[in-house]
């Protein structure tokens, strides 16, 4: 995002931490501000010998949906134990899973850190979570005889 003032020669200072900028407080604007996560940019223009502008704010909400987790080994009936791996293409997110039939969430379930050994009948239910994006759930049913 970019900031500008219609007053030639003025300086702009801004904050992204909720504080109020002034002619001496905040980051001196020098070019586009990257907005890769939800934030509020608050800015003020100032110039020596002039009154400061009014403080102006803009909120940016970054949303989206996390990719559904995929299972490497399809659900089904197997005669030998299987090793299940989980994956998702959403950067910065994590996977939680359950094997007891309960539904995982951002706080419920085991945090996935590597392959899951499946040696008896179970259902693996997984969710990919990201603090800023909507969660997506996948399910893998496996029966081992």
Question: What can you tell me about this protein's structure?
Answer:
The structure is a single chain. With 145 residues, this protein is an all-beta fold. It has 2 domains: 11-60, no CATH class; 70-144, Immunoglobulin-like (Sandwich). Helix content is 0%, strand content 43%. It has no helices and 12 strands. It has strands at 11-15, 27-28, 39-46, 56-60, 70-72, 76-78, 82-87, 94-98, 110-111, 116-118, 122-130, 133-144. The strands form 3 sheets. It has a 5-stranded mixed β-sheet, with no helix packed on it. The chain has a 4-stranded antiparallel β-sheet with strand order 2-1-3-4, with no helix packed on it. It is rod-shaped. The termini are far apart. 21% of the residues are buried. Mean pLDDT is 85; it is low at 140-145.
Please give the CATH architecture of the largest domain.
Answer: Sandwich
Helix content: under 10%
Shape: rod-shaped
Low-confidence stretches: 140-145
Largest sheet: 5 strands, mixed
The SSE string, one letter per element, is EEEEEEEEEEEE
Radius of gyration: 25 Å
Distinct helical segment count: 0
User: What kind of oligomer do you see?
Assistant: single chain
Distance between the termini: 58 Å
The CATH class of the largest domain: Mainly Beta
Q: What is the topology, as strand order, of the major beta sheet?
A: 6-12-11-8-9
- The CATH topology assignment of the largest domain is Immunoglobulin-like
**Beta-strand content:** 35-45%
> What structural category arises from helix and sheet content?
mainly beta
Rounded mean pLDDT is: 85
User: Domains counted in the coordinates: how many?
Assistant: 2
The total strand number stands at 12
């Amino acid at each position: 995002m970019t900031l500008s003032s219609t007053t030639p020669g003025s300086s702009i200072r801004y904050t992204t931490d909720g504080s109020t900028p002034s002619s001496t407080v905040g980051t001196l604007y020098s070019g586009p501000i990257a907005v890769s996560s939800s934030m509020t940019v608050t800015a003020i223009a100032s110039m020596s010998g002039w009154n400061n502008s009014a403080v102006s704010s803009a909120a940016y909400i970054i949303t989206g949906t996390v990719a559904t987790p995929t299972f490497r080994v399809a659900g089904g009936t197997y005669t030998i134990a299987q090793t299940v791996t989980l994956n998702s293409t959403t950067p910065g997110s994590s996977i939680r899973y359950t094997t007891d039939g309960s539904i995982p969430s951002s706080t419920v379930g085991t945090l996935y850190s590597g392959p899951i050994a499946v040696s008896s009948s179970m259902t693996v239910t997984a969710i990919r979570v990201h603090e800023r994006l909507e969660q997506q759930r996948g399910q893998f049913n496996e029966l081992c005889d």
